[in-house]
Specification:
The chain is of the alpha+beta class and 124 residues long. Helix content is 35%, strand content 34%. A hairpin with a 2-residue loop joins strand 1 and strand 2.
């Protein structure tokens, strides 16, 4: 997806998830970095952007050298993307958006469920 279509991507996101608020500037910065790295794809109908996808370069080394995993959950009115970074005791939330209180509770519940599986020191 070319950088000049970023405003169309932001419009799609607002229509899907609601106003961006203070998150808008960070989202623009993050998306420009993804576009520059070739990690944002766009689906078009003619010249109109109708959908986007992002992918992360995930590398995994075995035998304790490194192990980063990114997980994503999509709901009817929400999205959660998170991973374990900086060691097994930290969760890093890349993105969480919810269109309803029920979806927000469900997505935060997914994150909270890791407290039972691991002893977490930090959620970022």
């Amino acid at each position: 997806m070319p950088a000049e279509d970023l405003e169309q991507e932001l419009d799609l996101r607002v229509r899907a998830f609601g106003p961006l608020g203070s998150y808008r500037e960070r989202l623009i910065e993050d998306n420009l970095a993804l576009i520059a790295a070739g990690q944002m794809l766009g689906a078009y109908e003619g010249n109109r952007l109708v959908g986007t996808a992002r992918y992360l370069d995930i590398r995994q080394w075995w035998h304790g050298l490194a192990d980063y995993s990114e997980f994503a959950y999509l709901a009817d009115d929400g999205f959660l993307s998170y991973g374990f970074d900086g060691g097994p005791r930290e969760i890093e939330v890349s993105y969480l958006a919810a269109g309803s209180a029920a979806t927000a509770a469900a997505l935060w519940g997914i994150l909270g469920s890791h407290r039972c599986q691991r002893t977490l020191d930090t959620t970022r």
